[in-house]
Amino acid sequence: MARQFITLFKIKSVEFNRSDLSNSSSARPLKASFLKLGLLIIFSLSIFSVSHAETISFVQAEQHVLNNSYTSQANQALQQAAQLQADALKGLGLPRVDLNVRAYAFHNEVDLPLDGFKKNLESSLSQSINDRINEQNLPSNVADPLKDGIGQTLHSGIGLFPDSSNVILEDQVIRPTVSVLMPLYTGGATRSAKDIAKIEAKRSQLNTQQQQDVQRFELIQAYFNAQLQQQLFASSQFNAQAMQTHYHNALKLEQQGFINKGQRMQFEVAKNNAERALQNADANLRSSLFSLNNLLQSSQITALSTPLFINSVQNQHLNDLLKNYQDQSTLIKKMQMDTQLANANVKAQSAAKKPNLFAFGEYSLDDKQNWIVGVVARYNLFSGIDKNKTVQAAELQRYASELLTERTKQEIENIIYKSYNEVSTAQLSHQLLQKNIQAAQENLRIQQLSFKEDMGTATQVIDAQNTLSGLKSEMALNAYKYVMSLATLLQSHGSIDQFQQYITQSNTDYIR
């Protein structure tokens, strides 16, 4: 395209140099106008002159965005994280085994009362001694004094012990143990946690698909907007060159006395307006290419190989689109998954109201080998949280999710219906525009001949030229409208990944 533009500019320059006006005073403004137009064309072509310029098709651009964009990489990471989280909870509910090591030191100081101990000791010793004396069969006048004397001696000796004693216990212990805790009944909390993790993993996959569809839509908008701006730039350039030619011819006719200065100035005003429109088209083209390069994380894309297009006939029926979009739309699937999450949350909140039953055991790994096993039943009587209300809140969230899903279906159906009609309208408009362009080309030829024969006015020629250029721009705009309406229709239906199939259909008109 750049070579064609440069070649065209060179041809115009040669035609001007060979004209018989090259030495006349009226040729000076014409030279300046050609120079101004040529510089504008060269400046606009600077966007095509990058040393490492690239040409990219829509299919290549789509593949690049889906594989390398920041959004794609972020969603892939989130999807992997959700799947890993679901895998991590697969073993939830199995016995939990812990290796414990307790290292501790203790100090304990206790005051022990000895009164009772002293009395029991004195009584026991006295009874034992008396029994031994009785076994000797001593006369009572001997045995009784002996018992009294020994009893007094014991009482005096035991009285030497204090009435209380302060005992201090200190030790340092390292005790390894193995403990096992196994839930026997949790009221459904374990199953609910697993279900929520699985649903979130599937929802993450749907979210990735939805983001890919959004990226496809953004790429369609950016890629074909750049194509539209190229077509508008080409149309403005064609119009500017045509107006330059008309102005050139008007100068000749003015010098030959066939038209007056006012008529020639009408062409000059039209030429200036065409140059101004070309400047605006050039700025819009550069902006659209910058946006596309930014989306593709590049700075070297200057040419697009996939043109604007319009399919001649509709490939799908409206009723079929309205019937099966629920099976295709990732948005609807994701919202249905939200309802499943809300339902799993209801079960989890209900499980919090039920008792829990756990089996436990612990075995000491030291030389003492102590162990303990048992069962724990736990039922919360009061925690400050009204569990009935939390269950009601979860049920309302599920109900709201169901209602929002139905409302979203209504909105999608409206978009499908509107987009389908816009696609059909653009197809009909394209057929009419093709006929109008043919008529506008013939009308311009007739007005040029009429003006040369002094049977028409400059205004008629200018209007005919502007009409032809406007129809070419309108055809490009209509094609862009068709492309975006088709993209909106496919995205709402959930089949925007099939967009590139519409580009290569046999019944397709390309806007080049």
From TrEMBL:
Residues 423-450 form a coiled coil. Keywords: Cell outer membrane, Coiled coil, Membrane, Transmembrane, Transmembrane beta strand, Transport. It is found in: Cell outer membrane. One of its GO terms (molecular function) is porin activity. The keyword Repressor does not apply. The keyword Protease does not apply. GO terms for cellular component: cell outer membrane; efflux pump complex. Gene3D superfamilies: Outer membrane efflux proteins (OEP). It comes from the Bacteria. It holds the Pfam family OEP. Belongs to the outer membrane factor (OMF) (TC 1.B.17) family. This is TolC family protein. It comes from Acinetobacter lanii.
